[in-house]
Write a structure and sequence with these properties.
The chain has 393 residues and is of the alpha/beta class. It has one domain: Rossmann fold. The strands form 4 sheets. The protein has a 7-stranded parallel sheet, sandwiched between helices. The mean pLDDT is 95. Pfam families: Epimerase. InterPro entries: Epimerase_deHydtase, NAD(P)-bd_dom_sf. This is NAD-dependent dehydratase. It comes from Paenibacillus flagellatus.
Length: 393
């Protein structure tokens, strides 16, 4: 299958390119290196060094015996998107080119507007290019479980059945996003859903939980094939950040009480699930939603898990609570469904500790690199638009 990954230079994109190539797919990529620039703007860098794209592409060719077609450019330029679709003729498009950060969208008006316009424009351009040049292709768009918010009822996979005055219908589950970023994802989901209805496109919207992990699988013995791993407040997911804090001798910082509940998924599981979505497309005209996570955990659970595994390496990280910069409920109901991926064949990682061990082992050689950006480990972006460094409780 010809698969184009938009955002191939990112955390998920580079790992997915290798996963799909290992399964015999013809993979192409596009990127403009925004993720590298955004993390640098946050005063940080990837904990694990990331090779330049020229070196990544050479290592990819050596590992898989064929080159990856790659285009450098901005998906906000419709001509750029259209040219790729015409030239590569993808059978599947994986859209990972949106800005994936709620804190980044909360910095100020410029960042909020950028996140909204970038995320909506890139998705629109992909939809219109598919309609014009690849109407039979399958769009896999990365959404987020954060689109749902934390409603006081169970969360289905995208839709729910309702009955009113004897009439039944299947309606999109109401979204209760908690940031400007998450609302951009909601608006994008609505646009994809409407394009499927209007033009008969096939699309899968991945409502993904929080991803963690350093490597997708055993492929990455070559450092040029390593994917990035961020630890800053805007792009470092909580488990990755905890592991980086542990190896750098920094306290593990819990926002607020730590009782917040979220869906989480290891990086290898994310790659498995995205591959299942690519290889099992929906019917033309179908807008499919997959809730993608391994299990639901409280944030405090992760602090204790990471501290316990870090202790095996002789590390003794403290767990410290800091003021919560986010506007979110800390005690809430949270019970989302995630049955569809299991029906497609998802086999979840049952024991999380080995994933944490492999991550800490991979990070330990880079402990000094993390310490050099120590200031990035504490948040100073608040949802209310003020900038102030969080304090320990």
């Amino acid at each position: 299958m010809r698969v184009w990954i938009a955002g191939v230079d990112g955390y998920l994109g580079w790992a997915l390119a290798q996963r799909l190539a290992s399964r015999g797919h013809e993979v192409a990529g596009a990127d403009n290196y925004f993720r590298r620039a955004w993390v640098e703007e946050m005063g940080a860098w990837s904990a694990i060094p990331v090779a330049p794209m020229s070196e990544r592409l050479e290592a990819f060719r050596e590992r898989f015996g064929k080159s990856m077609p790659f285009w450098e450019g901005d998906l906000r330029d419709y001509g750029f998107v259209e040219r790729i679709v015409r030239e590569f003729r993808p059978e599947a498009i994986v859209h990972l080119a949106e800005c994936p950060s709620a804190p980044y969208s909360a910095i100020d008006v410029d960042h909020a507007v950028f996140v909204q316009t970038n995320n909506l424009t890139t998705t629109f351009h992909l939809l219109f290019a598919m309609k014009a040049h690849a109407p039979d292709a399958h769009l896999i768009k990365l959404g987020t479980m954060g689109e749902y918010g934390t409603p006081n009822l169970d969360i289905p996979e995208g839709f729910f059945e309702v009955e009113f005055r004897g009439r039944k219908d299947r309606l999109p589950f109401p979204r209760q996003a908690g940031s400007w970023y998450h609302w951009s994802k909601v608006h994008g989901s609505n646009n994809v859903m409407f394009a499927c209805k209007l033009w008969g496109l096939a699309a899968t919207d991945i409502m993904q939980g929080i991803v963690f992990g350093a490597y997708p699988d055993a492929l990455n013995e070559d450092g040029r094939l390593s994917t990035r791993l961020d630890f800053d407040q805007a792009f470092g997911t909580i488990v990755n950040r905890f592991c980086c804090q542990a190896v750098a001798g920094h306290p593990l910082t819990l926002y607020g009480s730590g009782r917040q509940q979220r869906g989480f998924i290891p990086l290898p599981d994310s790659m498995q699930c995205l591959t299942l979505a690519v290889e099992n497309p929906p019917e033309p005209g179908q807008y499919r939603v997959l809730n993608q996570f391994q299990n639901v955990y409280r944030l405090a659970d992760w602090a204790h898990k990471v501290a316990s595994v870090a202790d095996e390496f002789g590390l003794k990280p403290d767990i410290r609570h800091v003021d919560n910069p986010r506007m979110e409920m800390e005690d809430h109901h949270y019970r989302p469904e995630h049955d569809a991926l299991f029906r497609l064949g998802y086999e979840p990682t049952r024991d999380i500790d080995p994933v944490l061990r492999s991550m800490i082992a991979a990070l330990l050689p880079h402990a000094d690199r993390i310490r050099r950006k120590r200031e990035a480990l504490l948040p100073d972006i608040r949802w209310d638009g003020r900038r102030s460094r969080a304090e320990y409780r």
